Amino acid sequence: MKKRVMVISDMDGTLLRDDQTISEETQKYLKDLQDKGAEITLASGRPYRALIDYYNQIGLKGKIACYNGGVIIDPQDNKKIIHSNNFSMSLINNIVDSVGRENFQNILIENMTDIYIANKDDHSMDTFTYLDKDNIKVHYGEKYKTCNDMMLGGIFVLKNKSDIQKFMEAGFSVPGIGVRFWDNCLIAELYYTYVNKYTAIEQIGKSIGIPPSDFICFGDAANDIEMLYRSGIGVAMKNGNKVAKKYADVISFTDNNHDGVMNTLKVLINAYL
Question: Hey, which CATH number is domain 6-84+195-272, 3.40.50.300, 3.40.630.10, 3.40.50.150, 3.40.50.1000?
Fold first, then answer.
């Protein structure tokens, strides 16, 4: 390559097809690109355990930005945490109490080794919890209330739309903390207002000598906007929402179900070959 480039991809709705798979053609293309000198980075709201299988499947070698940039992990260095922004359980408990525990359908709080799920019988989060991973201890019920650990992330499922405002008020009342709801549902997460996927990939890029001007990033949703408009080239997926497309430089040629990342990257990468 003429110069190194860092390719960053979101997962759900971007690199992943709707059936949660990556085509063999895209996997091979990304691996070949990495072998030619490109840095391929995954940047996702998912936890590490829900990313590592895809990472290994492609054959990646770099760092991972998970929890929407809140945590940077190096799988090549014994899962070393390079950076993390943790939430105290007292903070989480105060927010839950402010809204009222009875107003939550479910609550999931986690760190690298333990997951606390309030309602075992609720299956609203089954598709992304990945509870079958080695060394993950799952605790059901109200045990989270007495846990004193620092947590890497949490997911909150409300019962009713009428409680959205109350939850947002509780979250945003804490300096530096925000609340973000997923598209068209009652599932929300806490985040630090000064932390996002871009702050994570910028740190990764700096550590390996690649400036943001040589970032090509792909995303489809509101939690991708910072990296879309601050990277050298930001690509919003054809199937992405209006907010992502507003902040992007390019719209992918095809959608996530039709190798949108690969098909677009094949054209954009020419400047670096």
Answer: 3.40.50.1000
pLDDT band at 129 (very low <50, low <70, confident <90, very high): low
134 contact partners, CB below 8 Å, separation of at least 6: none
Question: pLDDT band for position 107 (50/70/90)?
Answer: very high
Convert the pLDDT of each residue in 160-213 to its tens digit: 999 999 999 999 999 999 998 887 789 999 899 999 999 999 999 999 999 999
Mean pLDDT across the chain, nearest whole number?
92
Task: Say how far apart CA 193 and CA 202 lie, in whole Å.
Answer: 16
**End-to-end Cα spacing for the chain:** 5
Please give the Cα distance from 7 to 130 (Å, whole number): 26
Largest Cα–Cα separation, the chain: 58
What CA–CA distances, in Å, run from 146 to 107, 113, 140?
14, 17, 13
b/e map 159-185, b = 16+ CB within 10 Å: eeeebeeebbebbeeeeebebbbbeee
Q: Please report the pLDDT score of residue 147 as a whole number.
A: 79
- Residue 50 and residue 112 in contact, taking contact as beta carbons nearer than 8 Å: no
DSSP 34-70: HHTT-EEEEE-SS-GGGTHHHHHHHT--S-EEEGGGT
Rounded to 5 degrees, φ, ψ at 112 are -70, -20
Q: In the chain, which residues fall in CATH 3.30.1240.10?
A: 87-192
User: From CA 267, how far away is CA 184, in angstroms rounded?
Assistant: 33
Q: How far apart are CA 212 and CA 154, in angstroms?
A: 29
